[in-house]
Design brief:
The complex is a heterotrimer of chains A (285), B (293) and C (432).
Chain A: H1 16-44, H2 48-52, H3 66-74, H4 77-108, H5 114-125, H6 133-142, H7 149-157, H8 160-171, H9 175-183, H10 188-217, H11 220-225, H12 234-245, H13 249-269, H14 271-283
Helix pairs in contact in A: 1-13, 3-13, 4-7, 4-8, 4-10, 5-8, 8-10, 8-14, 9-10, 10-14, 12-13
Chain B: H1 7-33, H2 40-44, H3 55-61, H4 64-96, H5 100-115, H6 118-128, H7 135-142, H8 154-183, H9 186-194, H10 199-227, H11 231-236, H12 248-258, H13 262-292
Helix pairs in contact in B: 1-13, 3-13, 4-8, 4-10, 5-8, 8-10, 10-13, 12-13
Chain C: H1 2-24, E1 31-36, H2 37-53, E2 59-64, H3 69-78, E3 85-89, H4 90-98, H5 114-119, E4 121-122, E5 125-126, E6 129-134, E7 137-140, H6 142-147, H7 157-170, E8 176-179, H8 186-193, E9 200-201, E10 206-207, H9 212-226, H10 241-246, E11 250-255, H11 258-266, E12 276-278, E13 289-290, E14 292-298, H12 305-315, H13 318-328, E15 331-332, H14 341-344, H15 350-356, E16 359-360, H16 368-383, H17 389-403, H18 405-413
Helix pairs in contact in C: 2-13, 16-17
The chains are: A mainly alpha (285), B mainly alpha (293), C alpha/beta (432).
C-alpha cells in the first residue's frame, strides 16, 4: 500500500500550519479520550478521604493500593476475573474454529447451498442479538444451562462477522494453491489443516483478538444468564458493585480499572492484528 | 473453483447449527412470545398462558413509555451517528496527514475507549458529569459557564449519554476511514490542484465522495450499535430522569426481567428488530442511489 | 505465521483445559444461602459458628446486590435453580409466593414484632421468618436545627415545613433543608401512608392514586421541591451522602436504619454528634411509617429443608441477632434483643423503637414493586412541573389498572385460597 506523498493534501497545501493543526487537533482528541481512563486509574490509587473530598484531585497525594486490595479481598474480583477469562478464552477458541472452517469452506469449497449459507451469514450480521435474550434465556432454562459457562459461550460462538472476515480474506488467496493439494489426492480435512489454516493464520489471529475483546466486554446477556454471583463476569459484577457502592468512588474506580486494564493491554499488545480485523471487517460490507 | 464435494457442508455445519439454534430460532421465538400474555402468573402456572394476537403491539401504540423510549433511542442514533462519522472522518484525515512515526501513538490513544468495558467507562463518566463535584462542571465553573445538571435534567441527560456513546465509538470509524483514505489515489489530488481546486473543493469533491461507501457502511455499523443502546443508560442514569434516557432495549429489559411481562417485552424486541432492518434497507438503497449517480 | 499459529494452538489447548477444569471444580455445598448486600458479608462471618456446630456441613453464602436481588431470585426460580435459603426483602416475598417458589413455614415461635410477622403471612400461611426489620424515619442535623431556633424536629407536616424554611434561610447556596432523591420512592410512600385511603382499592385490583388522600400526599411532596427546600437530584448524584450531610449540604433525610451504620463508618467519632434520628411527622400529629426488612425463606425446590430450618433458627438466636446488629446496624426482628445492652444504650435507636410501634404494612401483591417504580416516575414528573397532580394521578391509575389486569383475571377465576390472590388488607398497626 503506497503512502500518500502529499501529506494533508486533501486538507489543503501540505503547509506547516495544516500539519501543526493536525497535531494539535489529535493531541486535543487524545487528551479527551485518555483523560477519563487515566483519571479513573489515578482515583483508584487515592486514599479514601482524598477520593471522597468533593471533586477528586487529578493526582493521588500519597498513592495507596488500599482500594485495589479492598476490591480484591472484599468484592471477590478474582472470581469474576477468572470467569471473564474462561468465558472470553472459550468463546475465542470456539469461534475461531467455527469461523475458520466455515469461512474457508464458503470461499474455497464448493457445495450445494453455499450461496444460501453465505446469505444467511450476511443476514446474521443484521440481527440485533441483544433483542433475543428473552427466548434465549427460556432455551437455556429448559436445558438447565443457566449459570453455566456454556450459556455465555455457545450463543456467540458462531460469529457471522468473523465468518465473513475469514471468507473475504480467503477469497484473496488463489484457489490454485488448494487445488494443487487436491490433485495430490489429499483429503479435504488434510487440506484444511495443513494448507488452509497456515494461510489463514493472520486473519484468524485478528478475529481471535476481536472476539476476545468483545466477549470480555459483553454485558446484557451475561447479566441475565449468570444469576449466581460466583459465575459472573467482570462487567456484570462491576455493575452490581456499582449499584451497591456507587458512593465509594475510590472503590469503584479501582474495580473499573481492573475491568478495563486487561483489554487495554491486550489491545496494545496485539494492535497489529486487532486493527487489521477492524479494517478487514469494513471491507467485507 | 473446485468441484462439488460433500465435505464442504461439514465445514460450515458447526457455524450453521450454532446460528440456527442460537440466533434464528430465538428470532422466531421472540415473535412467538410477543403474541402471548406470558407473565409472572403464566410462568407460575402454564394454564394461565394464552395467545392474545397483536394485543401487546396495540398496547405499545398507546404506551407513553414506549414512545418515549423510541424517541430517546432515535435521538441518540440521529445525533450520535452523524457526530461519530464526522469525528471519525476528521480524526482519520488528521492521522493520515501527520508523520508516519506518530500515527501509531495517536491511533492507539483514540482507539483505546473502543476496547474498554462500557460499564467501566460509564462509571467514570458518571463521576465526571456529577453536577456538584464532577470535573466537567468544575471546569465549566472556572470558565464561568455555569454548572448544568447533566444527569438530572431530562434534556441534558440524553445529550450526556450521546456524548459518552460518541466518545467511545468514534475511534473505531477512524481506523476504517483512515484505511480507506489510503486507498484514494494521490493523482486525483494532483490533478485537482493543477486545476486550481481549493482546500474545501478538494475535500468535498474528492475525499468525501471517495470515502462515501466506507462512511455508508460505518453509518450502518453505528446505527446497529447505537440502536441497541443499553449499558450506558443502565449505568449512568438507570433510564432516568423522568424516563428520558430509557432506551428501547432498557425498556425491554425492565419489562422482561424486572416485571416479568415477557409477552410485552418481546413485542418491544420485535419492533426494535424490525426498525433496525428498515435502517439497513434504507442504507442499502441510499448506497445504491449513490452508486447509480 | 508459524509462530502465530502454534501460539494460537497453545492458547486454544490452555483454554479448553481451563473450561474443563472449571466444570469439574464445583465444591459440594451442604446448604446454599443467598443474601443481599452487606447482610451477606455479615452472614459469611456468622456461618463458621453454625458449621462448627454441625461437622461436615459446608454452607455457601452468595451475595446479591440490593437493586438486582429480586431479578436474580426470580430468574433463579424461573430457571429451576434456586438456593436452599435466601434473604428476601419484604416487598419481594409476594412475587415468590405467587410463583409457588417458597416452602410454607410452620409458625416460628419467637418474640417478633407483630407487624413483621404479618408481612410474611399470606392467606394465613407464613412463608418467611423475619430476620431484621426496618422502617423509614428522619435523619437530621440537630446543630443546624438549633441554630434555626428549634430544639427538635416537628411532629406535624406544617411544623416541619416551617422548620425547613427557617433552616433553608441560614444555609449556604447549594445546600438544602431536605434530601429527597427523585429516584427513591420510599419517601413519597411514607407520606402517602399517613393518609387514610390505601394506594390500591378492591383488594389490590385497581389503583387508588387519584384519591384525595394520595393527591394530598403528592401535593405536599411537590411543594417541597417547588419551595426549593429539596434539590431535584437522584441519589446517584451523591458522592458521599454521609460526608455531604455532615457538612450541612442536607439537614433532613428520610431513610432507613442501615444509615446508622453508614454514618458511623464514614464519619470520624468526634462528628457522631452532628446527626440524630427522629420519628416521622404526620399531617396533624406523629406520623406512621413503612415496615420493611428481610425474611429468611426456604425454597420448595430445596432438598435440605431441615438443615435450612436449623440454619435459620441458629441465625435468630440472641447472640447472632446482636452480631448482625453490630456488623450491619440492622435492627433485630425479635423484640427481646432490643432490651440487651448494645441496642438499649444507643440513643440513635430510640426513634426507631418508637416508630416501629407506628407502622403500616405495604400492599403485598407481586406487582407492588412495579407500581412503586411507576409511582416514583410519576412523582418525579409532577415534581418537575411536567404534570399536574390531578392529571398525573388519574393517568397513573389507568396505567396501574393495566398492570393489574392479569391479576384481576386470575382472581376472577382462581379459588380464594390461591396464594397469588392474597391481598393483605392495609390497616394501620396501631389505632389512629
Amino acid at each position: 500500500m503506497p503512502e500518500p506523498t502529499g501529506v494533508a493534501s486533501d486538507m489543503g497545501v501540505p503547509t506547516r500550519m495544516a500539519r501543526a493543526g493536525a497535531y494539535l487537533g489529535l493531541a486535543a482528541l487524545a487528551a479527551v479520550t485518555l483523560f477519563p481512563l487515566l483519571w479513573m486509574a489515578s482515583i483508584a490509587l487515592m486514599s479514601a478521604p482524598q477520593a471522597a473530598a468533593g471533586t477528586p484531585p487529578l493526582w493521588p497525594q500519597h498513592p495507596t493500593l488500599a482500594n485495589i486490595i479492598n476490591v480484591i479481598s472484599q468484592q471477590h474480583i478474582g472470581t469474576y476475573f477468572f470467569n471473564s477469562l474462561v468465558v472470553a478464552t472459550a468463546t475465542t477458541v470456539l469461534s475461531v474454529l467455527v469461523a475458520g472452517s466455515a469461512g474457508y469452506a464458503l470461499a474455497h469449497v464448493g457445495f450445494r447451498g453455499r450461496r444460501v449459507v453465505s446469505g444467511l451469514m450476511v443476514f446474521g450480521v443484521l440481527i440485533p442479538t441483544q433483542a433475543l435474550v428473552l427466548p434465549l434465556f427460556e432455551m437455556f432454562r429448559e436445558v438447565h444451562l443457566v449459570n453455566h459457562y456454556a450459556a455465555l459461550v455457545l450463543p456467540v460462538a458462531a460469529n457471522p462477522v468473523g465468518i465473513l472476515l475469514v471468507q473475504a480474506y480467503m477469497r484473496g488467496i488463489p484457489a490454485e494453491i488448494l487445488d494443487a493439494a487436491r490433485i495430490d489426492g489429499a483429503s479435504e480435512w488434510r487440506i484444511f489443516r495443513s494448507v488452509a489454516v497456515p494461510l489463514m493464520a493472520p486473519i484468524l489471529a485478528a478475529v481471535s483478538v476481536l472476539v476476545f475483546v468483545v466477549s470480555w466486554n459483553e454485558f446484557m446477556w451475561p447479566m441475565i444468564a449468570m444469576q449466581q454471583e460466583n459465575m459472573q463476569t467482570l462487567p456484570v459484577a462491576l455493575a452490581a458493585i456499582d449499584r451497591e457502592h456507587y458512593q465509594n468512588i475510590g472503590l469503584m474506580a479501582a474495580a473499573a480499572t481492573i475491568t478495563m486494564l486487561p483489554m487495554v493491554c491486550v489491545f496494545v499488545a496485539s494492535q497489529r492484528y486487532y486493527l487489521r480485523s477492524v479494517i478487514a471487517g469494513s471491507l467485507t460490507g | 473453483m473446485t468441484g462439488r464435494r460433500p465435505s464442504g457442508v461439514l465445514f460450515v455445519l458447526p457455524a450453521l447449527v450454532l446460528l440456527v439454534v442460537f440466533v434464528f430460532i430465538p428470532l422466531v421465538g421472540v415473535l412467538g412470545l410477543s403474541l402471548t400474555n406470558l407473565d409472572l402468573y403464566s410462568l407460575a402456572n402454564t394454564a394461565n398462558l394464552h395467545a392474545i394476537g397483536a394485543e401487546n403491539y396495540l398496547h405499545l401504540l398507546r404506551d407513553r413509555r414506549a414512545w418515549q423510549a423510541l424517541a430517546a433511542t432515535l435521538a441518540v442514533v440521529v445525533v450520535g451517528v452523524p457526530a461519530t462519522l464526522v469525528l471519525s472522518l476528521i480524526s482519520a484525515l488528521m492521522i493520515e496527514s501527520i508523520a508516519e512515526r506518530w500515527r501509531g501513538l495517536f491511533r492507539t490513544a483514540l482507539f483505546v475507549p473502543v476496547v474498554c468495558s462500557t460499564v467501566a467507562i460509564a462509571i467514570g463518566w458518571r463521576y465526571l458529569l456529577n453536577t456538584r463535584f464532577g470535573l466537567v462542571n468544575h471546569l465549566l465553573r472556572v470558565l464561568g459557564l455555569g454548572a448544568p445538571n447533566w444527569l438530572g435534567n431530562p434534556h441534558l441527560a440524553i445529550i450526556a449519554i450521546t456524548i459518552v456513546v460518541v466518545w467511545k465509538g468514534f475511534g473505531y470509524g477512524m481506523i476504517i476511514v483512515a484505511a480507506a483514505r489510503r486507498e484514494i489515489p494521490e493523482e486525483l489530488y494532483e490533478a485537482a490542484r493543477i486545476e486550481g481546486a481549493g482546500v474545501r473543493q478538494r475535500l468535498l469533491r474528492i475525499t468525501v465522495p471517495m470515502l462515501a461507501p466506507t462512511l455508508g457502511l460505518l453509518a450502518l455499523l453505528d446505527v446497529s450499535g447505537y440502536w441497541q443502546l443499553f449499558a450506558e443508560p443502565y449505568v449512568l442514569t438507570r433510564g432516568g430522569p423522568l424516563g428520558s434516557t430509557t432506551s428501547l432495549l432498557l425498556l425491554m429489559y425492565d419489562r422482561g426481567f424486572l416485571w416479568w411481562r415477557w409477552g410485552a417485552a418481546s413485542a418491544i424486541a420485535v419492533v426494535l428488530t424490525a426498525m433496525m432492518w428498515m435502517f439497513a434497507w434504507a442504507q442499502r438503497h441510499a448506497r445504491a442511489d449513490w452508486r447509480g449517480e | 505465521m508459524k509462530a502465530v499459529l502454534s501460539r494460537a494452538v497453545r492458547v486454544a489447548v490452555l483454554g479448553a483445559v481451563i473450561v474443563v477444569c472449571a466444570g469439574c471444580a464445583h465444591t459440594p455445598c451442604g446448604l446454599t444461602v443467598w443474601a443481599i448486600g452487606s447482610e451477606a458479608g455479615a452472614l459469611e462471618r456468622m456461618v463458621p459458628g453454625f458449621e462448627a456446630s454441625r461437622p461436615g456441613v459446608l454452607v455457601c453464602v452468595q451475595q446479591l446486590p440490593w437493586s438486582s436481588a429480586q431479578v436474580r431470585l426470580l430468574s433463579a426460580v424461573a430457571a429451576g435453580d434456586p438456593p436452599d435459603v435466601a434473604q428476601v426483602g419484604d416487598t419481594d416475598l409476594a412475587t415468590l409466593v405467587a410463583l409457588h417458589a417458597l416452602r410454607p413455614e410452620p409458625r416460628i415461635a419467637g418474640d417478633f414484632f407483630p407487624a413483621a410477622l404479618r408481612v410474611a403471612r399470606f392467606d394465613g400461611v407464613s412463608y418467611g421468618v423475619p430476620w431484621y426489620i426496618d422502617t423509614r424515619l428522619l435523619f437530621y442535623l440537630p446543630g443546624i436545627l438549633r441554630r434555626a431556633g428549634f430544639a427538635r424536629p416537628a411532629r406535624t407536616w406544617s411544623g416541619w415545613v416551617k422548620q425547613m424554611r427557617a433552616v433553608q434561610r441560614i444555609l449556604h447556596r447549594g445546600q438544602y433543608a431536605l434530601l429527597a432523591p427523585t429516584n427513591e420512592a420510599e419517601f413519597l410512600e411514607v407520606l402517602a401512608l399517613q393518609e387514610p385511603a390505601p394506594m390500591l382499592r378492591d383488594g389490590g385490583r385497581y389503583g387508588n392514586f387519584a384519591s384525595a388522600s394520595f393527591r394530598r400526599a403528592l401535593s405536599f411532596y411537590r411543594s417541597l421541591y417547588a419551595q426549593h427546600l429539596a434539590p431535584r437530584i437522584s441519589n446517584r448524584q451523591l458522592i458521599n451522602l454521609w460526608w455531604e450531610m455532615a457538612r450541612g449540604d442536607f439537614v433532613f433525610y428520610v431513610s432507613g436504619p442501615w444509615n446508622i451504620g453508614e454514618f458511623r463508618h464514614f464519619l470520624p467519632p468526634h462528628d457522631q454528634d452532628l446527626w440524630m434520628t427522629a420519628p416521622m411527622p404526620g399531617p396533624d400529629g406523629p406520623g406512621v411509617s413503612t415496615i420493611g426488612g428481610s425474611d429468611f425463606v426456604i425454597f420448595r425446590a430445596s432438598a435440605h429443608a431441615e438443615l435450612a430450618r436449623q440454619f435459620i433458627r441458629y441465625m435468630l438466636a440472641d447472640k447472632q441477632q446482636l452480631r448482625l446488629y453490630e456488623l450491619t446496624g440492622d435492627l433485630p426482628a425479635r423484640r427481646g434483643v432490643w432490651h440487651l445492652p448494645p441496642l438499649a444504650a444507643n440513643t440513635k435507636l430510640r426513634a426507631f423503637r418508637a416508630q416501629l410501634n407506628r407502622v403500616r404494612p405495604f400492599i403485598a401483591i407481586p406487582e407492588w414493586n412495579e407500581i412503586m417504580s411507576g409511582m416514583r416516575r410519576m412523582a418525579a414528573r409532577v415534581a418537575a412541573g411536567d404534570a399536574s397532580v390531578r392529571g398525573a394521578t388519574r393517568r397513573f391509575d389507568r396505567t396501574v389498572d393495566g398492570w393489574l389486569a392479569a391479576r384481576r383475571e386470575l382472581l376472577a377465576h382462581a379459588p380464594p385460597s390461591n396464594a397469588a390472590s392474597a391481598a393483605r388488607r392495609t390497616r394501620p398497626s396501631e389505632a389512629r
